[in-house]
Input
Amino acid sequence: MSLDLNKMKIAIIGGGAAGFFAAIHAKENFPKATVIIFEKTTKVLSKVKISGGGRCNVTNGETSIKALALAYPRGGKKLKKAFTKFNTKHTYEWFESKNVPLVIQTDNCVFPKSQNAQSIIDCFLNEANRLNIKIVLQKGVKAIHKEANKLKLTFIDDENLLFDKIIVATGGSPKQKGLLWLEKLNHQIEIPVPSLFTFNMPNEPITALMGIVVEKTIVSIQGTKLKSDGPLLITHWGMSGPAILKLSAFGARILSEKQYEFKVQVNWVNETNNNKVMETLQDIVAENLKKQLSSIKPYQLSTRLWLYLLERIGLPKNRKWQEIGKKGLNKLVNILTNDLYAVSGKTTFKEEFVTCGGVSLESIDFNTMQSKTVKNLYFAGEILDIDGITGGYNFQAAWTTAFIAAKLK
Output
């Protein structure tokens, strides 16, 4: 007997961003179906509430699918095709159509115009209410079993319920044991490790410069091919900012293997040609012979950082530019383009914990988001081995995979 798609029972496991987006679209695709969201905690959409500093960075303003895919250390290749079905433009239009006006910032991050994540939460709750989607809290799932042509959900309280289709949207699991119930269904699991973290530098005096932002830097990990660029923020514990976060995302597995003990190379001036840097400094010398080093800051570096770098290489700040000599110039070129810092440990970026790892994309038919091993079981969001850099990319992956999964093909 074939399944009446309109009368089917659909379970969404996880009341986060991907779970709600999947539930809303599943109900819109199959209006007569019963759709239930099961959330193991006491609150839904808790990560949405704290994301973007409580403002919720819902997506990115990038409209080129090719460029968009490059923002994902893991999953970008598969997402490239998926973005043809639902991308940043579609996300923007969807929220605006639900009376949630959005605004694109100069850095391409997209936020609700209200600058409040509650706008997104209210939108989802209103849609769920309008569509008569049931939300069940404190209902954690411990197992899924195949039963004839149905899927049986076994909950932590040992209750069993049968469903025709299930979408798993439980978010990233920081530990491998949190994915065991899916591994038992013959899904390949990529061991989770942290992504998007800042660098701890407990033994580096640069932390005294906390609060300084250098807008254009290049950062790399010594002994690897890992490299990133963008703004760098000096913090009271070490280094953060987009350049560092991007580096941590693309290097998540390598840095985990190093147990977060490594050296980071900082190019403070965003210039890889050392000869050009030397020429810039020589021009400064020629034009400011009698001026002190402290009074002329190359590349518009902040005074505090410039004085710190001079001290770091042993050049007195009251020395005149004409007295610096070739040796002094070489020292300056080296510190500006290849400054080295010891990293010992990491710190989670705000409360936005992102994992590298999860259900392997090899276990999923990415055209439908259906499991290759269990028919009628689908996946959406961070439970998959997909993660992006900061800037709304992780939410975009959630919307895209949820949209496709909700077609229940």
Remarks:
- The chain has 13 helices and 22 strands.
